[in-house]
Each structure stands twice: as structure tokens, then as C-alpha cells.
Amino acid sequence: SKTFAVSLDKSDGGALGISIETKGQNVRIVEVLHCGKVLDWNREHPTEEVRSGDHVLEVNGLRGDGAVLVAEMGKAQPLALVLERSQEPLCSLGHAMAANRKPFNVCDLCSARGTFYRCTAGCDYDLCEACFGVGTSTRRPDPVPDLDKLCDRWTRAVSSAEGIQSTPEVEREGWNEDRLRALCAKHGWDFEWQTEDGERRRRIRERQGFGRVAAVPIPSVTLGGFREEEPDG
Prior knowledge:
three-stranded antiparallel β-sheet, alpha+beta, 6 helices, single chain
């Protein structure tokens, strides 16, 4: 079985974030919780993460009595642990599995129909004979990263919905008389349009222009070789 070292710093008195059970010299990790020093270690060391079912062999050089190891782990100090990876098949919550054939159940690992082993704690967790024979521990997925993403999306959505709460301030861009004259000259506008009197005169000229009718030339008509002009009245 695989053994590996884990270094944790509990000098600040923080919790390990694990639940354990002790039987004589055997200290077994039942579950890794979703907060604590062990979870921080798992995130930083994914290839040597602590899992449900792992056994604690040594704490700060101490071995043997499980109660002594647990007491040492509870102190506010740096911890040097030696763990042994469990080869016992466990459910997703770290509970032991036992023979319990269910021909119509589906294996929770490979989705094969027909299972031979079921969680002893009553979890709805089943394994087929092939997956149970592999002997690898399963672990509960960590939802914390997904929760952080959800909170971030929620914060952005709320900020977008609320909009800008402050009162906007519009600054003048210096539209003085010189700039207005230059703009009117560029587009061929009369600068008087910017005044009330100039605008009134412009509208009068427009109405006068609509009343004028352009002169239309009257075509001539030739009949029998004679050219007669159509009356213009």
C-alpha cells in the first residue's frame, strides 16, 4: 500500500477539517470536510491529497497508540503526518462497503447493471464486482470551487442589474462662439440659425420657397405640316 507525507500548520489553532475514528492503534480518516487545513492541503497537492479511508500511521514522529496520535493532532502546532492510502473500497462518504447483491441496481462507478456490494451506512451507493475488486477508494467531489464561481457570477449579475447608482456629471466641451462659427462654416450653415431671430427668418424663407412654382416650357404640336402653338392660357 502507498504511504505519503502530509505537512500541516496548525499554529494558528485552525481546524484540520476531518472526521476520524480510532480503534486501538488504527486511526482512520472517515471524511474530509469542506473547510480546514486538510482541504487546503488537498487543493495545493492534488497528487497527494488526503482521502476518506486513509490511515494515520505517524504524527510528529509518534506511532502506536491511536489516542496519542489523535491528541497530538489536536495541538496548535505544525504537524508532520505519515498516511497510508486505503485500498478498501468505500462509498462516496467514506463508509465501508459490504456484500449485498442487487441485480437491478446500477454501479455508481461504471454504471453497469447488477451490483454485488452496498454501503453499510445506508447510503444509496452500490458497486459491481469488477469495481469492488479494483480496491480503490472513492471520494466525494469538492463543490467549493463551483460555489465560488456561482457567487462570482451572482455578484456580477447583481451589479449589472443595479447599474450606476451615482449621479452622472456632464462636462462642457468648450462650445464657444468660435467653434460654433467654424462648425457652421464647415457645413455651410448660417450662423444666425443659432439665434432665435435667425431661426425665425430661416423658417420664413423655407415657407416662401415652397410657394414658388418653377416655369415649365409648353411643348409645340405640328398638325398637317402647320405648326400651331398651343394656347398658353
